[in-house]
């Protein structure tokens, strides 16, 4: 899982570079493309929420990247625990992005022009 040092996320887009995706995908347990695509779709609905979600994802990826750089020096027990923790954090953030996108789409279906959040979703 080496090679994550060059992980680059562009603000508002979260586009990862080259082979670094593989290490992150391995840690995440699936391909990050779906998460990044949801984030890009969210930008078309609500830029402010997309920026907030992007910043949160960048923070998680930054921490995961730091972990990946030292992962090879850890014992198997530590790697097992830490892999699960980082997988959980990545999964949680991607789920948050998914939820924000879904809420935005529901708001649009209700006739809204931008996402209002779960409590403020327009009622038909």
TrEMBL record:
It comes from the Bacteria. Keywords: Signal. Residues 1-16 form the signal peptide. This is Uncharacterized protein.
């Amino acid at each position: 899982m080496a090679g994550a040092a060059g992980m680059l996320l562009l603000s508002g887009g979260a586009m990862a570079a080259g082979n670094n995706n593989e290490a992150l995908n391995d840690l995440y347990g699936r391909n990050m493309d779906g998460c990044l695509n949801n984030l890009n779709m969210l930008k078309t609905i609500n830029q402010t929420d997309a920026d907030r979600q992007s910043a949160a994802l960048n923070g998680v990826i930054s921490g995961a990247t730091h972990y990946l750089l030292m992962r090879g020096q850890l014992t198997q027990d530590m790697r097992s625990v830490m892999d699960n923790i980082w997988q959980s954090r990545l999964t949680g953030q991607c789920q948050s992005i998914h939820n924000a996108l879904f809420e935005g789409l529901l708001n649009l279906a209700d006739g809204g022009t931008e996402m209002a959040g779960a409590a403020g979703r327009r009622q038909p």
